[in-house]
Amino acid sequence: xxxxxxxxxxxxxxxxxxxxxxxxxxxxxxxxxxxxxxxxxxxxxxxxxxxxxxxxxxxxxxxxxxxxxxxxxxxxxxxxxxxxxxxxxxxxxxxxxxxxxxxxxxxxxxxxxxxxxxxxxxxxxxxxxxxxxxxxxxxxxxxxxxxxxxxxxxxxxxxxxxxxxxxxxxxxxxxxxxxxxxxxxxxxxxxxxxxxxxxxxxxxxxxxxxxxxxxxxxxxxxxxxxxxxxxxxxxxxxxxxxxxxxxxxxxxxxxxxxxxxxxxxxxxxxxxxxxxxxxxxxxxxxxxxxxxxxxxxxxxxxxxxxxxxxxxxxxxx
Length: 317
Ligand SMILES: NC(=O)c1ccc[n+]([C@@H]2O[C@H](COP(=O)([O-])OP(=O)(O)OC[C@H]3O[C@@H](n4cnc5c(N)ncnc54)[C@H](OP(=O)(O)O)[C@@H]3O)[C@@H](O)[C@H]2O)c1
Fold this sequence. Notes:
- The chain is α/β, with parallel strands linked by helices.
- The chain contains 13 helices and 15 strands.
- NADP nicotinamide-adenine-dinucleotide phosphate binds next to strand 8.
């Protein structure tokens, strides 16, 4: 098949292209910067410049490519990491999820594209009540923190738009990414002991290695019914387990512990909720319906051996 990957030069995109090519697919890969063309070509893709917020340009690029499938991996989270002003940090990503998705779906419609696969997220988005692990049927958080309302609204909008579109629209809710290009910031914070455990660390996180997320994306390109799928590993785990373990894996000192009230003052409400109340996700539907399963079934193996592309030595990063 011919696959148009919008936002192909990012953390997930550059792991996805080789897997699509290995699966026998032709890939048209977009970036806003011609400087990334060589990287994309070296991975086996045809490179195209595209601003996903420019409707006319999206229409032209898709109509020129005439793809069978469109994959939307555009996000803009690099650099501005600010959990206190979450919606400000997510502002462009929110636009890419709302307008960017609308532009791509309109272009897909004009060209007669069969399938559309879009990046979503599972983690802080889940309702912070009931059981520790959520399925795709469980509600998103009805009471997001003040600074996360727009980000959650954009996710809700995009998921609804894609999964009910007049083609096969698949939403992949990736868990928290780790792997080359996705975990360096977190590891740097741990090494500087700037990532303390807040409160009881009872928040449940679901992780996914970038290569496993890419493999699930290939599966969704090739088959699967319209709808939402959680793409996470087999072991949702509390912060109190994975955070000290990750610190140990990267040779950092054990994270400091701070009470929730101090975490709220120092890091803000969204961070405290994420560390103490978050819920994990089940991958049962993706395994059953996409025929996918993570090669790294647990972050325990992944954190130790797969944070970088370096050969496993027992000490990662
Ligand atoms: N589930 C998760 O945990 C999750 C999800 C998303 C991101 N992240 C992490 O956040 C960090 C930064 O990520 P990021 O958001 O910058 O994602 P990224 O994975 O580095 O790249 C996102 C892609 O979106 C493209 N893009 C951005 N703005 C665009 C626009 N206006 N039009 C077209 N394409 C556009 C970028 O294109 P250019 O080539 O033009 O720059 C890039 O190819 C990474 O470490 C990543 O792993 C984690």
